[in-house]
Amino acid sequence: MNIHTFLEKAKRLSGKGYLIYIVGVSVLCIMLSQFSAKSHFRAWVHKILNKETINKAVEYEANEEVDYGQFLTFYRYSSFDACNPDEVDVNAPMIALTFDDGPSEKATERILQVLRDNYSHATFFVVGKQSDKYPELIQAIASSGCEIGNHTYDHKNLTDLNVEEIGQQIDDVSRSVKSACGSDPTVIRPPYGAYDDEVMSLLDKPVILWDLDTEDWSSRNAQTICDKVMAEVKDGDIVLMHDIYESTAEAVELLIPKLKQKGYRVVSVSELAKYKGKQLELGTAYGKIKQ
Fold first, then answer.
1. Position 227 in a domain
2. Domain containing 73: what range?
3. Which of 9, 42, 127, 141 is deepest in the core (most CB within 10 A)?
4. d(Cα 26, Cα 31) in Å, to the nearest integer?
5. Domain termination residue (choose one: 52, 78, 104)
6. Distance CA 273, CA 119 (A)
7. For residues 144 and 110, what is the distance between their CA atoms, to the nearest angstrom?
């Protein structure tokens, strides 16, 4: 009996048999994600897992690589009857968590894990120097379904720069991010929230500010950060945080479950705009997004 036949038989069982099925698929997919870079291993994988099984998770063609991460995510959602993250109640209260100045080894992956565990997204406004230093974290952000925003290359106040310097600060981040994950940033946040008419005219993406500042850079205390958000949060808020502090990562671990208990959906900025029926436009700065 091959592995596929075993799993199909296990799936038809109840109780212990079904548990074996789920555990078996999960373990197998984790193994595949670790070794799928090896072409000979992929060939073996395709031999034991036929197209019908793979097609349940990803749109597969013979000449394309299978994304086993998507395959595992499919079973996480479908096998345990979890809420499909694509089916969103647009009438539910929503906020966008945003993280500036990363990515960093201290906090970014830890925050991403909390988001994944809670089927949530956020927007990461990355600094180019950090993007160049940690391209694997840029890839992790993109792979998680989160949004990447441009926060300039050196975190300089754009109102102090000339036209050429502003363009360089923006373009170098786009280059770095695209090199790491294949896509450009979709939104921009000027450092310090500082812009004038000239800066705004040069920015090629919608400008995202915030209306709830956690002041995580000041308190460096997870409980304080969490309490501040829970006391002030409102539907449509864009929340400012920084994924360069361990205390911020700890705060996110406390915060997201509390937000979900209050009925909030935690989404990226662009998702917030979409679900609120708004189109993000050039030449406009957004501090919050409401219907």
1. yes
2. 3-78
3. 141
4. 9
5. 78
6. 18
7. 12
Determine the average pLDDT of the residues in 112-130.
98
| The total number of structural domains that make up the chain | 2
Same-domain status, 156 and 63: no
> Would 253 be classed as within a structural domain?
yes
Contact indicator for 98, 208 with CB cutoff of 8 Å: yes
Catalytic residue among 67, 100, 197, 216: 100
Selected catalytic residue, list 235, 237, 242, 243: 242
- Shared domain for 135 and 254, answered yes or no, is yes
Percent of the chain past pLDDT 70, that is, above it, reads 70
Give the bridge partners for 126, in sequence order.
Answer: 150
HSE on the CB side for 138, CA within 13 Å?
A: 28
Tokens of 60: 């597969």
For residue 161, give the 3-state DSSP assignment. Answer: coil
The position carrying tokens 């197209």 is 51
Q: Would residue 85 count as lying in a domain? A: no
Spatial distance between the Cα atoms of 81 and 76, rounded to a whole number of angstroms = 8
Q: What is the pLDDT of residues 171-222, one digit of tens each?
A: 999 999 999 999 999 999 999 999 999 999 999 999 999 999 999 999 999 9
Q: What angle do CA 42, 45, 47 make, to 5 degrees?
A: 115
Cα distances from 133 to residues 130, 165, 180, 247, in angstroms, run 5, 21, 10, 22
Q: Answer with the one of 29, 45, 78 that is the final residue of a domain.
A: 78
CATH code for the domain in which residue 266 is found: 3.20.20.370
Nearest to 108 by CA among 91, 126, 88: 126
Please state the three-class secondary structure of 58-124 as a single string: CCCCCCCCCCHHHHHHHHHHHCCCCCCCCCCCCCCCEEEEEEECCCCCCCHHHHHHHHHHCCCCCEE
- Ranges assigned E (strand) in the chain: 94-100, 123-126, 147-150, 187-188, 207-208, 212-213, 238-242, 265-267, 285-286
